[in-house]
Amino acid sequence: MIDTVKIHIPILATYVETHTHAKGAFYKTIIGINELGLTGSSRCVKDGVPFEIYHAYQSLPTSHSGIGYKFYHQTYNTLPYLELNCSIAKILQGHNVYGLDNLLNCIQMIGVVYDQFPKLWQHLDVQNAKVVYMDITYSAVMQNKKQAEQVRDYLRNVDFKGLRNQSVIGEKDHYNTVYFGSENSRIGRFKVYCKGVEVQKEVKELEKLAKQNDLLAQMKLKTIFTKELQDYADKLVRIEATVKSRQMQQLGIPQNLWQLYDYHIQNPNLFTELWQIKTDAMFTALQGKTMNYADDSEIWQALESQLTTYTKTGRESKTKARNAYNFYKRIQQSGFYQVKLDYKGAERTFQMNVKNLLDCGISKAFLQNLNNSKDNTINVLQVLTVDFNNQIPTDVVIPTPNGEYLEVFKPYFMHVVNARLQKSQNEIFYQSA
């Protein structure tokens, strides 16, 4: 699906003055930011008068999610432009757990500007709007949340010989994400993460607001972030590829929004192919590799229910449960008797750890026979399978853009189509001459 998209809409050239600069052409609008219906900010104030007015990055609210926007009134080597940045999946349905491979959804994003900023709209060259950034995402559906996390952790620990970005491994905010490629890459990078972890973070924030009688948060929990959606997200290993301007240029893919939409109609596999280009090196590196696999979700549930404790302030703590689970995984990895040898000199600690597992209903005989035999290994690509035709639950209907917007923007698209058809007719004419 297409998730986050960044679009630049230039201002009409008639509202721009051009200057020569060491960096190249310098462009500046001849109409003020406030005159365009935008709220300007000032970098400096002299004698009580603000000057060096600019437009700060802001968020434009929609029914479900915000649209980031900023107007660049002074630019080098490109006309001043309005930048729009948002998840087109979120503004249509309130979440991005799943969505469509359809650039037409960008119309919803531009349509909000059409409604909210009529003055600005009159000065924009919408026909030359261009896509400068896209996040194209597809997911592999696992059996459960635990398997999804196992796959993610396996990818984090595999030696990809420089393919993976090591710089953010230790950062707490990124613990759920495995990055491939540099964040500053001019062609984009890709990343792998568990979608359920991301969704649960958002759900917890909404639950806090809902307890404070936030009606919007209550509505989202009831109608958008349903148990069914959360359960589905828990099973997803999301692989998200970022495509930037440079790579689109290298591949000969048009950046003009309307031309790109037309190009996609003629090349329906465009976005899956772009995603495959970005992720091919990872999948090639995984060929023939196996990972240890065991469905330990029931083990974790037993430990979580029995060993979860509460602090004096009433806060829930799962530290004891996690420690017990890590001890269990260690036995699974090395075998009961090897772990016992590892605890030589700390036998009491070993026995206490074993007792925690026994108290949760896990038999000692089971632990003594737990090891990483061949029965516990599986081909990685057998698990990490992305089915492009099975990215949306069967009972789900994805919302479409506002019908009024379709009529407003149809002329821009038809202009591109007519130009292409005219070009084809001319080529046929000259070939037959």
TrEMBL record:
Sequence ranges assigned to domain Replication-associated protein G2P N-terminal in this UniProt record: 1-253
- Matching InterPro entries, A to Z? G2P, G2P_C, G2P_N
Any one GO biological process = DNA replication
Domain named Replication-associated protein G2P C-terminal: residues = 314-396
- Segment forming the signal sequence: none
Coiled-coil regions listed: none
What Pfam family is a match, any one? Phage_CRI
What is the protein name given in its UniProt record? Phage/plasmid replication protein
